[in-house]
Design a protein that fits this description.
The protein has about 725 residues and is of the alpha/beta class. The protein folds into 5 domains: about 100 residues, PriA, 3(prime) DNA-binding domain (GIY-YIG endonuclease), CATH 3.40.1440.60; about 60 residues; about 180 residues, P-loop containing nucleotide triphosphate hydrolases (Rossmann fold, 3-Layer(aba) Sandwich); about 180 residues, 3-Layer(aba) Sandwich (Rossmann fold), CATH 3.40.50.300; about 90 residues, Alpha-Beta Plaits (2-Layer Sandwich). Helices cover about 30% and strands about 25% of the residues. A 7-stranded parallel beta sheet has the order 13-14-12-15-18-11-19, sandwiched between helices. A hairpin with a 2-residue loop joins strand 5 and strand 6. It starts with 14 loop residues before the first strand and ends in a 6-residue tail after the last strand. The chain binds adenosine-5'-diphosphate and zinc ion. The site of zinc ion has 8 residues, from loops.
Length: about 725
């Protein structure tokens, strides 16, 4: 559905006077459009937020269009009220419908992504509030109690003050009359900052050329996809912030999607430098109050720039003019629960439907994106060099067969020497291992028993700092037992393999004088702790940083010269379609932390397969060759992006019901020439959070309409009670 031009006059078929029927979409997991009648005295338009009765409840929804009239008049209830908020723009409604169709999800489940802060629908508190006007000594005890209550500077309503200070409302009023209290509107939750480009950065010629292109796309006010492809440290962020500045100059809103909020400590500092204020942030860790005020500020158009995780794509923008997807290749853009979607792909769809430019940013763009560049659908801008004097780091393989670490250790002599040399010259080192905890497997030396999760088919990971075993899939935790739970032998449990905590232990042994720190999502208590550690590293208060992929994201540590990847092969096996591509991207990003300023950097890849195409490509800096070979393999096999995949995941607590439903689905599989179905097979994670799981995989030619095929297929087989079917279009996870 193409969006109407913004200047089109209000269409009559989108205005509903009292007595007519409207279809209201409700944000419920299985929700769709329900008919209501417009009551006397109310006129509604498509896109209005409304309250409607549903059974005994009252729920909020969005007017989606005219009602469908085949329901008996006496069964149709009236809309309760219109909610005072700007309408959901037509392009946004078209986008939500498109997402529901593309992901084979109920439209109500997609509307829930938009209506993600229900409290924001309530009108802001219009009552006046009071703060202390002066801190003179109060004459009476009642007035003293009021002063004590208000000393924190927080505005409170007259009723709240009376209750909190145990006085009558009259006392509060009298104090205000006497000028001791000052009246302020209660509703002002600190609003979004005013942003003004400061114009402080001077871009290099390459950067300026790319920025000019992006500014032009923003001024076009039409759909385009531009890939900003530049090596790590080339200034991609500075360049796309220029496009954000242009969007502000156009009076429109800009969205910057980032993979993980941990990235944004340094990012926010840079943003503030350029715009003199903070953007609105949107991610899962926001407090309820912040969610409410941010959602409303976005809907009312007061929030000019949003930076957030994948879900911020579904905020109720009033006038969005730009979407930037930073690190577009990142796997965390894939939402794996509920409505399963890839935010990078949905951003492109939104750009198309809402006629706005999309910028995909990466040093290692995905094969999907590069294929679209080659076919001419996307435009590419290159930043081939690092900013200022910085050079790309040298990458070397450490052959773990030829020069292994000593027994019981994980760092090869070559890496130990490099770290020693870096510390001697006052530089920093980073050791990367994408595995949290101390050891991934705990084994009984006497009977061979492996410590497994009772809810998942997975090993428990030892977390020695916390003194326990943890399941990384469901969060199950147990104290580290003293004896083997199987054979009862005391002190027989042995840690197998390394996690970051174990590497840190080795670092302490090897470099007792060095200041070492571990950075993993579980060793820090939140974004603030992460930001503190990043700052300490940037200010060289840490000598050796040991971390998981969280250390790889976007950080800029000027004195970091040695980066060692403890297990470069991790992630290469498992038969995942994108294993090689993902490993290449992750290791490129890790490598990109080294030598970002004057001092040159070296990256050591500890590997048992130094001849592997991924290692060779990294060492030779041959991204193009690597991608070309990857593309060739996938083209030959008909794999994405040259073919389509849909995964069906069947799960439930009763294993035989799950399996029989999976088999029923297989029997009913579509028989078409451009489609084939594999499975069912027990999922690699055959038990997850207490649910047994089977998978089916539909492979199709690029041209196939997989959504129509899947919808028709799953409609023909009813799931038994307690068994759930998830449809994953374009799957990234094959667990
Ligand atoms: P990328 O996003 O491509 O990895 P960044 O935008 O993070 O690169 O830039 C790397 C570093 O260089 C940052 O510290 C950034 O502030 C700095 N930088 C990049 N371009 C400029 C510029 N034109 N002027 C000043 N500093 C710059
Ligand atoms: Zn588990």
């Amino acid at each position: 559905m193409p969006p109407a031009p913004a200047s089109a006059p209000a269409r009559l078929d989108n205005i509903f006077v009292s007595g007519t029927r409207v279809g209201v979409l409700l944000p419920l997991p299985l929700g769709s459009v329900y008919d209501y009648v417009v009551p006397d005295g109310l006129t509604l338009a498509a896109g209005d937020y409304v309250h409607v009765p549903l059974g005994p409840r009252r729920v909020a929804g969005v007017v989606w269009g005219a009602g469908s009239s085949d329901i008996a008049a006496e069964k149709v209830r009236a809309v309760a009220a219109r909610i005072d908020l700007p309408q959901v723009p037509e392009a946004t409604r078209a986008f939500l419908s498109w997402v529901a169709n593309y992901t084979v999800s109920p439209p109500g489940a997609v509307l829930r992504l938009l209506m993600s802060a229900p409290a924001a629908l309530q009108a802001p508190d219009a009552r006046p509030g009071y703060v202390l006007a002066n801190s003179d000594a109060m004459r009476t005890d009642a007035r003293k109690r009021i002063a004590d209550l208000l000393v924190d500077g927080v505005a409170r309503s007259q009723a709240d003050i009376a209750r909190g200070a145990r006085v009558s409302s009259g006392v509060v009023r009298k104090m205000a009359d006497d000028g001791l209290l000052r009246s302020v509107p209660l509703a002002v939750e600190s609003g979004p900052a005013d942003l003004h480009p400061t114009g402080d950065v001077s871009l290099s010629p390459d950067q300026a050329a790319a920025a000019a292109q992006l500014r032009a796309r923003v001024r076009d006010r039409s759909f385009s996809v531009t890939v900003l492809d530049g090596v790590t440290g080339s200034g991609k962020t500075e360049v796309y912030l220029d496009a954000v500045a242009e969007t502000l100059a156009q009076g429109r809103q800009a969205l910057v999607l980032v993979p993980e909020i941990a990235l944004t400590g340094q990012w926010l500092d840079r943003f503030r430098t350029r715009f003199g204020g903070a953007p609105a942030e949107w991610h899962s860790e926001l407090s309820q109050g912040r969610r409410r005020s941010t959602w409303r500020a976005v809907a009312e158009g007061r929030a000019r720039v949003v930076v957030g995780a994948r879900s911020s794509l579904f905020l109720p923008y009033r006038d969005l003019g730009l979407v930037v997807v930073d690190e577009e290749h990142d796997g965390s853009y894939k939402q794996e629960e509920g409505v399963i979607y890839n935010a990078r792909d949905m951003a492109v769809a939104l750009g198309h439907l809402a006629a706005l430019p999309v910028v995909l940013v990466s040093a290692t763009p995905s094969l999907e994106t590069m294929t679209n560049v080659e076919s001419g659908r996307y435009t590419v801008l290159h930043l081939p060099e690092r900013h200022a004097a910085a050079q790309m780091p040298k990458i070397v393989a450490v052959d773990m067969v030829a020069a292994p670490p000593p027994r019981g250790a994980w760092l090869s002599p070559m890496v130990v020497d490099a770290v020693t040399a870096a510390l001697a010259e006052g530089s920093q080192a980073m050791l990367f291992l994408n595995r949290r905890g101390y050891a991934p497997l705990t084994l009984c030396r006497t009977c061979g028993h492996r410590m497994e999760c009772p809810n998942c088919k997975a090993w428990l990971v030892e977390h020695r700092y916390a003194g326990r075993l943890e399941c990384h899939h469901c969060g199950h935790r147990v104290e580290m037992p003293k004896a083997c739970p199987e054979c009862g032998t005391l002190d027989s449990l042995a840690a197998c393999g390394p996690g970051v905590e174990r590497v840190a232990e080795e670092v302490t042994r090897l470099f007792p004088e060095a200041r070492a720190a571990v950075m993993a999502s579980d060793t820090m208590t939140g974004p603030a702790a992460a930001a503190t550690l990043v700052r300490a590293m940037a200010e060289r208060k840490v000598d050796i940083l040991i971390g998981t992929q969280i250390v790889a994201k976007g950080h800029h540590f000027p004195l970091l010269t040695v980066v060692a990847v403890v297990d470069a092969d991790l992630g290469l096996d498992g038969g995942d379609l994108r294993a090689a591509e993902r490993t290449f991207q992750l290791l490129s990003q890790v490598a990109g932390r080294a030598g970002r300023a004057e001092r040159p950097g070296t990256v050591y890849l500890q590997t048992y397969a130094p001849k592997h195409p991924v290692m060779r490509a990294l060492i030779q800096g041959d991204r193009a060759g690597f991608l070309a070979r990857e593309a060739e393999d996938r083209r030959r096999g008909g794999w994405p992006p040259f073919g389509r995949l849909v995964a069906l995941i069947v799960s439930g607590t009763n294993p035989s019901r799950v399996e029989s439903y999976a088999r029923d689905l297989a029997r009913a599989a579509p028989r078409l020439t451009d489609v084939s179905v594999l499975g069912p097979a027990p999922a690699p994670l055959a038990l997850l959070r207490g649910r047994h799981r089977f998978r089916l995989l539909l492979r199709a030619q690029r041209s196939a309409n997989v959504q129509a095929v899947v919808r028709d297929w799953i409609r023909r087989v009813t799931a038994p009670s307690g068994v759930r079917l998830q449809v994953d279009i374009d799957p990234y996870s094959f667990l």
